[in-house]
Design brief:
The protein has about 375 residues and is of the alpha/beta class. It has ten helices and eleven strands. Strand 1, helix 2 and strand 2 form a beta-alpha-beta unit.
């Protein structure tokens, strides 16, 4: 019995030892697995690198400057305006505004027939610019006669002259930009012989404008009022025996139908100007308004220097073509003849404005 008990005891001890070994193995294995898991976890949870900063957004392109197209009509075709300042104005506003201002010359009488109709189209905003004789709107703005009274100056009209004229033109919805033709002598040309002043009596002379007819009547001839673009056909077709013209008009073929030119010129200064619709002017930015004003002064300066020299050359072209110069007015008669136009300007102005405005025009004309 004792032996059996001992064996049983030994077995129990062995079994207990085996349990302890197995438990220890499990603990060791579990520890190893936990350490491995921790190591693996640390490896996978390493912080990710910071993302690269996003590129700065591309700035939006600056808007292109607005191009302003100025619809323009004049009293004649652009081809005849090379000796006027309009081509200069067209080229300079485009270049100096960096293309922001574009003059679109629609045409002359073929676009809108009649100088008065052109000025009315300007007032109504149908066109933006009009190059025209001031006489086209004498009834509306008689103050324009100031432009025929002042002496030409290289620096252009004075600030007081500008202000006075634009206050007058504001009444009719127009901005006076300035003269665009300056020194341009006017003569009476005829196809009938003229030796004395009496030879002009009863001649029919083609004429336009508000004052020129008074010159024709003053010498005893009969004015035939037609638009300037119809002068040539009036003489060629026998409707008129002569015509009042600026000396530069030789280039339109007149020497072919004219035989005599009456000297001296009865008028020297031009009243053709450039006008802008007032709403168009007010819509321009101040920098563009200032640019246009400066360009007009530069054109005035260059135009005077050009015109004085060119007038003598133009007259010589007529003479070289066989047109005979005649002087039917001598001495005091010449003084009277060359004063007809200027005196009629004063008379027309006196009749159409108040005494106060008339005196202002006289005073400003002396500046």
């Amino acid at each position: 019995m004792k032996l059996v008990t001992q064996s049983a005891t030994n077995i129990s001890v062995w079994e207990e030892q085996m349990k302890r070994k197995n438990l220890f193995s499990v603990i060791v294995l579990t520890s190893v697995l936990l350490v491995s898991a921790l190591i693996a976890g640390c490896a996978t949870q390493a912080p990710a690198p910071a993302p690269a900063p996003a590129p700065a957004p591309t700035p939006a392109p600056a808007p292109s400057p607005e191009v302003i197209v100025l619809k323009t009509v004049g009293w004649t075709s652009m081809a005849r305006l090379e000796r006027h300042g309009l081509p200069w104005f067209r080229d300079r506003i485009y270049a100096q505004s960096n293309g922001r201002l574009v003059l679109d010359y629609i045409g002359g009488p073929e676009a809108i027939k009649g100088s008065a109709e052109q000025f009315e189209a300007l007032r109504q905003g149908i066109i933006d610019l009009n190059f025209n004789y001031a006489s086209s709107h004498e009834a509306l703005v008689p103050e324009y006669h100031l432009t025929e009274l002042w002496e030409p100056k290289l620096e252009g009209p004075t600030p007081d002259q500008y202000e006075f004229l634009n206050e007058a033109y504001k009444r009719v919805g127009v901005r006076w930009l300035g003269q665009i033709k300056y020194y341009g002598p006017w003569y009476i040309f005829t196809n009938k012989e003229v030796q004395t002043k009496d030879d002009l009596k009863d001649m029919r002379i083609a004429v336009s404008g508000a004052i020129h007819p008074f010159v024709v009547m003053g010498v005893g001839a009969t004015p035939v009022k037609v638009e300037s673009e119809e002068f040539f056909t009036a003489v060629q077709g026998g409707l008129a025996d002569g015509v009042t013209l600026q000396v530069e008009e030789w280039k339109t073929g007149f020497p072919d139908v004219i035989n005599y030119v009456v000297l001296p010129a009865y008028k020297s200064m031009s009243n053709t100007s450039l006008y802008m619709n007032l709403e168009t002017w007010d819509s321009l930015s101040p920098d563009l308004q200032d640019l246009i004003s400066k360009i007009m002064v530069s054109i005035y300066n260059d135009g005077i220097l050009r015109d004085f020299g060119a007038a003598n050359i133009d007259l010589q072209v007529w003479l070289d073509a066989g047109v005979e110069p005649v002087r039917p007015f001598i001495g005091t008669d010449a003084e009277w003849y060359t004063g007809i136009y200027a005196n009629q300007i004063l008379e027309n102005t006196r009749e159409k404005v108040s005494p106060e405005v008339y005196n202002t025009i006289i005073d400003l004309g002396k500046q």
